[in-house]
Q: What sequence folds into this?
């Protein structure tokens, strides 16, 4: 029966505009809630579905501040079996480790868990985190563990010795067959994640969360500060009101040569 | 099209209404219907949901409220929503998990009867029949209210705006942010609003109405004033899908459940169940901290839920509806922001310190259209149809107009949203903020303090406990009847009437008017003539334009052009606003609020003159100091003003003393009274037992905007020639037969058939015919107990209530409906004649 | 001499518009003072034919990487191949366009080479020995991050559509030296590869359609999409939607446009009942023209669109379809 691991990241859930602190070194999160990065929410859902289908177990792991326990418990509340929290005193609030440091820490902890409890057949990452968007932690971890990985996955079929995964392309899907154990970077759209039930939420409150601490290795990408992307200013042309505007709309389509 | 995005932005308007939630929309709709034109409405958010509390409201209305004003606003709102076609009746059940709650639900039956709202108590089995997925095993019963409804408040807002637009009265601008409110010097030291500055330009305005809910403190600060509310979190989750709900195919197929004992509600929303909570810790924000629309994930008032706060409610909800809530998913969860005020009433009316700036804030969906109508009528006529006594924003003392007070009180009452609140219940927070100069003396006497205008006022004294046995006072067997009450009150009453008592009246509100225009100004405000000799007093009602009571108070003419005015602690700020907003603009009358300068001690009882004669060398005989007059005298070296008057029906004086002398005077009075066995007497006697036996009317209880001077039995034989506010209406009222007359009733039998013990009413009960039908007068007003209390000297429990003339006949047998049971009562006195000492011989000799 | 290796992306020998942008990015890097020449990297013999053209885009030379496992796309093998080039040639930088494949290959290569990798760079602010000051995008494009990259070789992807993908005037008539590199590759490199393809039956996809008729919360229901589907069909376009629509189950996720859905750039994007949250905007902001249809004249989308019509989409869209049919008949 498969052992599945999902690596998740706690990220803020911003509104229509991302507000920065006055010194531009961080996002102002005073009014923001936090969530699991959307791609990873789908990874959690997929792990639960695979366990529902094949049996086995689903473990969720995060590297993050103390508050990231909220995201671990959320994963438990929707059906994940075990939660592991990797912390370090430097992980406070929105502080983030460089992708190399993050990947090294995750690989070390995963190797430790596997040494104790046996290997994971499948490890799921989000394609990229919603906030930092580094596009590399999953690949780095897979390489350190010596396992294959493909990103951008929107469909997973788990077999005894291999996993079949589909990735979206401009004309359809590419199919990959990876021998197990394997790693996949998944994208939102893989499934529609469930929400917790009331009993699930209550159970997750009492679930044990294993913790471990890892020292960061040096990484080469250092974030200095942030800026909002420039908002473009457009002069909107009003074509009219209600169905009376239909001819004007069709004129526009015709003018653009799209009729 | 409901927006005017492409119109030129106006530079002036008759009235600018800020806010396009259900309240602002209601206000523009009603103002337009009342004839206002050139209305400009702005909101910083988009339409139809600009992102305030309206957008995430649960939108249900449980019309029953113990408070008449709130019930009237609920019912008016339900009527308006119905007329707009956005009111859907679904019924609602308030459920009881405890016997204490069942008793509260019995009390709700009385309120339902008072306001004519259909309701019945239901058994757990009956609840199960209506709501098959409920776990009835944990229930004691419920209060079923079939007219409970759900409304579409966003649609209602649009309809209101469209009505105003159809009348050519309104331009609405969305996405306009207010940057400043401009004030200039107004009359008599007040400020006056003149313009609204927005990010699209300045609008000069004659009137401005703030209808911005949780943002109100921020807007008020722009005008240099204060709106006492705090944005507070109300948590809500949406759980689904639930097949049994989906199968109904309706937004609501089952009654809404209010799980009163867990402070939660369960409201179907199509295929899912909304669970809302008032059980969590109070979570407040500052208006300035509310995120902007762009910074918000959902909306500025739908903040990320702090789920830990909700978890206990999840367990309780699961216990109540295990079958449907056990498998459904939590799809949506918010910390929704709504407005709380220090006393849980809305904030409606004119700002006390900025002319032409009005507030309609802290209004919830259930009362919004009614509140909007109230505000619009008030702006138009000077007085709304529904008496705004509790909602009036001018009701706050200065000490209460700050965030610290607001938060303390809101934190305390937030969890009483579904709580069982005794009518006499006292606040636990913000105590000791206002105290009398001799507070340590009353404290040493074991005073049990109730608040009067925020001031600590002894209600009874534990040091008098021994008098209970002496006078053989009976206790009350039921905990509810005895709560916030003591038999010592009745004992103090009897002791005072036996010899002499002294009463702490420090919370009295004292104004002084002087200047050449004073007499004429006061004549324009009062029903009774103030043109009396210097040294004499005037008792008079103040009326609103419709002839309803605005206040009743006492005045002393202390010099040719100087009057001192004393009014009750509960209405001081409202009365102050009423006077100051009417002061002549020519400066001929000078107003001073002397409340903090004076303390007042009452000295009453058959031995009061003997005590007084020991305190002063002045002549205090009946001839030397007649009833109803005032003199300045010396208590040794200390100057005091004596006023020979009584609210308790005994010989005696009110002693007005400057605060720095007050402690010394307290001690002098106590020492002088010692040989007569003087007792300290609390407000339980002053405000209830003593007053009731004299049939004295109290503003806010017997006297309000809906009854007339004639009906209250306070009309004098003649009407003064001077004109005054409400005179025209008053003259009409004198001409017509009264629709109701205020009567004193006696309770003939206290024994409860259900409880097997004696029960004692607390006020607000329904007076019924002997067969339990409520009594409605020809103006549609219901006979309700305005005051209930002991008559220790008379020997019976007394009720005051208005009755239609046919029933206002001495000896008529009626009933009082208390806790879902009927008790026999008899009409003892019709009109204002005291039931005890009807000739007033005790106090006037 | 130090070179910049620019991965030239292709699919079985077919280049895409974004493929050429890696060379534009390389030129920007060169201009910022990193390296002295550009070497295009074309992986797999099936793409050999693309090599000759690349001089026009600024490539001074082209390395064609060959191996029997380098047929069709195989991320691990591609990544190893790039890592081998890093080891063999010690370039100043390795760049790609920040596409799914570009980021994936560079992630592999940087992991193997154990160097840092900065994805989705928009600007090189300054360069020094082993130290680059750069700007990259976060939050799917709604936030810019200024960061520094400290590495012996700079591994960078350039945000798609930010850098020039056209031939460069300075290179008119230039030719590039063609080299061939025979990759070694590990024995396991071939385990991650495209083994099959599922082609969607419809010829028009959301990402390729010239017209996208897209719906948001204002559509109201799954059935409410009927007029959108009709209009899209008439125009030979595709139907798109916002995240709330997929969350409500009204449309499949494959129709979703936005930060967590598809990034598209049609000629005309018709946004119906879409308020215009930034998460949606980043998915369609590359559209050439935007028409917003909304009941709320103050909606974000209306303010940002080039054209707008205020009103009920359920009335307007059928009228538009009827008008099109009338004109065509």
A:
């Amino acid at each position: 029966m498969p052992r599945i691991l999902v690596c998740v990241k706690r990220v803020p859930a911003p509104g229509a505009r991302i507000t920065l602190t006055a010194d531009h070194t961080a996002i102002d999160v005073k009014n923001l809630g936090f969530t699991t990065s959307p791609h990873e929410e789908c990874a959690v859902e997929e792990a639960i579905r695979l366990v529902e289908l094949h049996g086995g177990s689903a473990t969720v792991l995060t590297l993050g501040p103390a508050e990231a326990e909220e995201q671990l418990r959320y994963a438990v509340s929707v059906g994940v079996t075990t939660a592991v929290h990797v912390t370090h005193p430097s992980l406070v609030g929105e502080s983030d480790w460089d992708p190399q440091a993050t990947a090294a820490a995750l690989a070390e902890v995963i190797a430790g868990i596997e040494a104790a409890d046996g290997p994971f057949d499948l490890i799921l990452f989000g394609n990229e985190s919603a906030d930092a968007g580094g596009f590399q932690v999953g690949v780095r971890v897979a390489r350190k563990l010596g396992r294959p990985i493909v990103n951008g996955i929107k469909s997973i079929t788990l077999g005894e010795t291999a996993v079949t995964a589909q990735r979206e392309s401009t004309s359809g899907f590419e199919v990959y067959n990876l021998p197990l154990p394997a790693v996949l970077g998944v994208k939102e759209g893989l499934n529609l994640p469930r929400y917790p039930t009331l009993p699930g939420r209550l159970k997750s409150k009492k679930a044990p969360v294993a913790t471990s601490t890892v020292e960061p290795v040096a990484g080469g990408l250092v974030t200095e500060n942030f800026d909002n992307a420039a908002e473009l200013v457009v002069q909107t042309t009003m074509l009219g009101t209600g169905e009376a505007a239909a001819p004007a709309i069709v004129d526009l389509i015709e003018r653009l040569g799209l009729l | 099209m409901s927006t005017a995005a492409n119109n030129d932005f106006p530079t002036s308007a008759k009235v600018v209404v800020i806010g396009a939630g259900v309240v602002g929309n209601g206000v523009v709709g009603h103002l337009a219907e009342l004839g206002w034109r050139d209305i400009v409405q702005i909101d910083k958010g988009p339409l139809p949901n600009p992102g305030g509390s309206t957008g995430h409201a649960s939108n249900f209305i449980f019309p029953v409220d113990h408070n008449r004003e709130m019930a009237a606003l609920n019912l008016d709102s339900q009527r308006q929503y119905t007329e707009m076609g956005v009111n859907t009746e679904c019924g609602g059940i308030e459920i009881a998990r405890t016997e204490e709650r069942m008793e509260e639900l019995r009390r709700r039956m009385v309120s339902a009867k008072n306001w004519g709202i259909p309701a019945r108590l239901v058994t757990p089995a009956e609840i199960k029949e209506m709501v098959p997925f409920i776990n009835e095993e944990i229930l004691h019963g419920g209060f079923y209210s079939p007219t409970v409804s759900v409304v579409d408040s966003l649609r209602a807002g649009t309809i209101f705006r469209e009505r105003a637009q159809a009348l050519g009265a309104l331009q609405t601008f969305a996405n306009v942010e207010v940057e400043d409110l401009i004030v200039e010097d107004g009359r008599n030291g007040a400020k006056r609003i003149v313009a609204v500055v927005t990010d699209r330009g300045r609008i000069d305005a004659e009137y401005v109405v703030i209808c911005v809910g949780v943002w109100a403190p921020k807007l008020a600060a722009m005008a240099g004033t204060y709106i006492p509310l705090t944005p507070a979190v109300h948590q809500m989750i949406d759980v689904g899908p639930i097949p049994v709900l989906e199968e109904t195919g309706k937004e609501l197929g089952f009654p809404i459940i209010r799980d009163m004992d867990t402070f939660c509600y369960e409201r179907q929303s199509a295929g899912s169940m909304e669970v809302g909570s008032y059980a969590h810790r109070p979570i407040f924000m500052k208006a300035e901290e509310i995120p902007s629309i762009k910074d918000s994930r959902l909306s500025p008032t739908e903040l990320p839920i702090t789920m830990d706060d909700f978890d206990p409610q999840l367990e309780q909800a699961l216990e109540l509806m295990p079958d449907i809530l056990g498998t459904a998913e939590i799809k949506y969860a918010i910390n929704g922001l709504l407005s709380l005020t220090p006393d849980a009433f809305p904030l409606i009316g004119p700002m006390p310190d900025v002319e032409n700036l009005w507030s309609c804030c802290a209004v919830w969906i259930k009362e919004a259209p009614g509140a909007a109508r109230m505000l619009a009528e008030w702006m138009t006529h000077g007085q709304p149809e529904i008496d705004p006594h509790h909602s009036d924003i001018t009701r706050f003392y200065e000490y209460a107009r700050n965030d610290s007070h607001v938060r303390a009180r809101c934190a305390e009452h937030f969890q009483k949203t579904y709580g069982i609140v005794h009518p006499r219940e006292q606040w636990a927070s913000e105590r000791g903020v206002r105290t009398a100069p001799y507070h340590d003396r009353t404290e040493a006497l074991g005073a049990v303090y109730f608040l009067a205008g925020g001031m600590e006022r002894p209600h009874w004294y534990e040091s008098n406990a021994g008098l209970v046995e002496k006078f053989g006072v009976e206790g009350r067997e039921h905990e509810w009847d005895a709560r916030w009450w003591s038999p010592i009150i009745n004992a103090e009453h009897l002791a005072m009437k036996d010899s002499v008592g002294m009463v702490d009246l420090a919370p009295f509100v004292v104004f002084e008017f002087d200047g050449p225009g004073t007499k004429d100004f006061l004549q324009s405000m009062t029903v009774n003539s103030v043109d009396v000799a210097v040294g004499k007093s005037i008792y008079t009602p103040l009326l609103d334009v419709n002839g309803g009571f605005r206040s009743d108070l006492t005045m002393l003419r202390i010099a040719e052009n100087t009057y001192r005015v004393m009014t009750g602690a509960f209405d001081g700020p409202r009365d102050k606003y009423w006077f100051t907003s009417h002061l002549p603009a020519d400066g001929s009358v000078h107003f001073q609020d002397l409340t903090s300068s004076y303390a007042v001690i009452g000295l009453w009882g058959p031995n009061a003159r003997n005590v007084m004669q020991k305190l002063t060398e002045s002549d205090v005989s009946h001839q030397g100091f007649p009833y109803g007059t005032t003199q300045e005298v010396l208590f040794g070296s200390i100057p005091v003003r004596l006023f020979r008057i009584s609210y308790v029906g005994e010989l005696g004086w009110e002693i007005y003393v400057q605060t720095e002398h007050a402690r010394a005077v307290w001690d002098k009075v106590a020492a002088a009274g010692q040989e007569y066995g003087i007792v300290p007497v609390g407000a339980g006697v002053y405000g209830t037992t003593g007053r009731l036996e004299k049939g004295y009317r109290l503003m806010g209880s017997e006297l309000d905007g809906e009854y007339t001077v004639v009906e209250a039995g306070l009309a004098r034989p003649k009407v003064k020639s001077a004109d005054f506010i409400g005179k025209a209406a008053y003259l009409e009222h004198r001409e017509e037969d009264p629709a109701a007359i205020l009567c004193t009733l006696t309770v003939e039998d206290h024994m409860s058939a259900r409880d097997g013990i004696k029960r004692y009413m607390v006020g607000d009960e329904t007076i019924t015919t002997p067969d339990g039908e409520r009594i409605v007068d020809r103006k549609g007003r219901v006979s309700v107990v305005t005051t209930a209390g002991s008559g220790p000297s008379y020997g019976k429990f007394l009720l005051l209530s208005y009755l239609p003339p046919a029933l206002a006949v001495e000896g008529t047998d009626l009933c009082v409906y208390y806790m879902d049971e009927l008790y026999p009562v008899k009409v003892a006195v019709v009109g204002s004649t005291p039931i005890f000492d009807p000739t007033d011989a005790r106090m006037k000799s | 001499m130090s070179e910049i290796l620019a991965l030239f992306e292709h699919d079985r020998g077919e280049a895409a518009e974004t493929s050429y942008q890696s060379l534009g990015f390389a030129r920007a890097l060169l201009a910022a003072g990193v390296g002295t020449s550009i070497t295009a990297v074309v992986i797999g013999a099936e793409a050999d034919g693309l090599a000759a053209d690349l001089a026009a885009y600024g490539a001074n030379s082209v390395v064609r990487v060959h191996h029997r496992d380098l047929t069709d796309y195989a991320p691990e093998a591609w990544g190893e191949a790039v890592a081998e080039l890093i080891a063999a040639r010690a370039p100043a930088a390795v760049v790609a366009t920040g596409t799914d494949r570009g980021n994936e290959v560079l992630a592999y290569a940087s992991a193997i080479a154990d160097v840092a990798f900065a994805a989705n760079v928009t600007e090189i602010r300054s360069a020094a020995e082993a130290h680059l000051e750069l700007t990259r995008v976060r939050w799917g494009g709604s936030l810019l991050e200024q960061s520094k990259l400290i590495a012996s070789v700079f591994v960078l992807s350039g945000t798609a559509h930010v850098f020039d993908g056209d031939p460069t005037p300075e290179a008119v008539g230039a030719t590039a030296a063609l080299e061939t590199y025979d990759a070694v590759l590990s024995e396991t490199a071939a385990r991650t590869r495209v083994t099959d393809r599922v082609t969607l039956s419809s010829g028009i996809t959301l990402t390729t359609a010239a017209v996208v008729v897209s719906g948001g919360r204002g559509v109201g229901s799954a059935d409410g999409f009927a007029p959108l589907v009709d209009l899209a069909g008439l125009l030979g376009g595709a139907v798109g939607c916002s995240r709330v629509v997929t969350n409500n189950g009204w449309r499949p996720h494959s129709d979703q446009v936005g930060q967590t859905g598809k990034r598209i750039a049609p000629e005309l994007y018709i946004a119906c009942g879409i308020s215009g949250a930034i998460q949606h905007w980043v998915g369609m902001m590359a559209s050439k023209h935007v028409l917003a249809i909304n009941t709320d004249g103050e909606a974000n989308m209306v303010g940002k669109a080039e054209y707008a019509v205020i009103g009920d989409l359920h009335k307007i869209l059928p009228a538009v379809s009827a008008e099109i049919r009338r004109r065509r008949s």
